[in-house]
Amino acid sequence: VVAEGPHAGFDLLGEEDRAARKLYLSLDEEAKQAARAGPVEGDVILGPGQEQRMPARGLPAADMSTGQRASLHALIEIWAGLLSPKLARTELARLRNTEFDQLVFAWIGPEQEGKAHGWRIFSESFALEWITPRAEAGHVHALWRDLARDFGRTR
Question: How much is the pTM?
Answer without folding.
Answer: 0.85
